[in-house]
Design brief:
2 helices, 125 residues, 6-stranded antiparallel β-sheet, two-stranded antiparallel sheet, single chain, 8 strands
């Protein structure tokens, strides 16, 4: 299928869209989870961005230059995601291929479905 072209992304906490931020939707999600958003680096894909086939892309990662209690916030996020399977956080991305195929990826379910499932709009802040 080749590289994926982002059409739309929806980041949610407790099933509700996060408020948009100038720092990105994943930044908003971390804030809503009660963690220090300054402890992380973010890469929220935008419409028409490409994701390269067979290359893992991180949307949230630890900021190695962060100091203070950041290691605690980073550990809490890892614990929630890795061990507790935090049901609060999710994201869905609508993609298309260079061949016109459309599909939707759901992070929480780790599934890809054909077509573009309806995604509500997010609020701007």
């Amino acid at each position: 299928m080749g590289n994926a072209i982002v059409h739309k992304i929806l980041v949610t906490i407790d099933g509700k869209p996060v408020s948009r931020s100038i720092f990105g939707d994943f930044y908003s999600a971390i804030n809503m989870l009660g963690l220090d958003a300054g402890c992380f680096l973010y890469a929220t894909p935008r419409q028409n961005d490409f994701l390269i086939k067979d290359k893992e892309t991180f949307f949230i990662e630890a900021n190695d230059n962060a100091e203070g209690l950041c290691k605690l916030s980073q550990s809490i996020l890892s614990l929630k995601e890795g061990l507790l399977q935090n049901e609060r956080f999710n994201f869905k991305i609508q993609f298309s291929s260079a061949y016109g195929e459309k599909f939707t990826y759901d992070y929480r379910k780790n599934t890809q479905t054909d077509g573009w499932n309806e995604l509500p709009d997010q609020k701007s802040i």
